[in-house]
Amino acid sequence: MAYEFTNKKGVKYYLHQKDVNLKGGRIQRIYYFARDIREGSLDAVPAGYKVVETERTGMPILKKA
Fold first, then answer.
1. Could you read off the pLDDT tens digit of each residue along the chain, which spans 65 residues?
2. Geometric angle at alpha carbon 48, from 47 and 51, rounded to 5°
3. CA torsion through residues 25, 60, 63, 55, sign
4. Which domain holds residue 33?
5. DSSP string covering 2-56, please?
6. Which candidate, 28, 31, 40, 45, has a CA 20 to 30 Å from the CA of 21?
7. Cα(65)–Cα(57) distance, integer angstroms
8. Please, are residues 14 and 35 in contact by the beta-carbon 8 Å criterion?
9. Are 9 and 27 a contacting pair, CB within 8 Å?
10. What distance in Å separates the CA atoms of residue 8 and residue 57, rounded to the nearest whole number?
């Protein structure tokens, strides 16, 4: 089951991860929230991170703890 976060407005978001190729050929892992469950969903917040809700839009983001 994907990690679920509900913001103050009551909208549910699910945590995902994806490995992307950068221009220099380096691979970097990114984390993002989506309103539906997609490929790459995570069951828990990665170690060393915490979920914070942005004040202006209410979107959840990951920050280093």
1. 899 999 999 999 999 999 999 999 999 999 999 999 999 999 999 999 999 999 999 999 999 98
2. 95
3. positive
4. 4-64
5. --EEE-TTS-EEEEEEEEEE-TTS-EEEEEEEESS--TTB-SSPPTTEEEEE-TT
6. 45
7. 21
8. yes
9. no
10. 10
Contacts of 21 (CB under 8 A, 6+ apart): 27
- In angstroms, rounded to a whole number, what is the distance separating the alpha carbons of residues 3 and 6? 10
- Total residues found in the chain within this entry: 65
- Looking up tokens 């280093």, which residue turns up? 64
Q: pTM of the prediction?
A: 0.90
- Residues paired with 53 in a beta bridge: 60
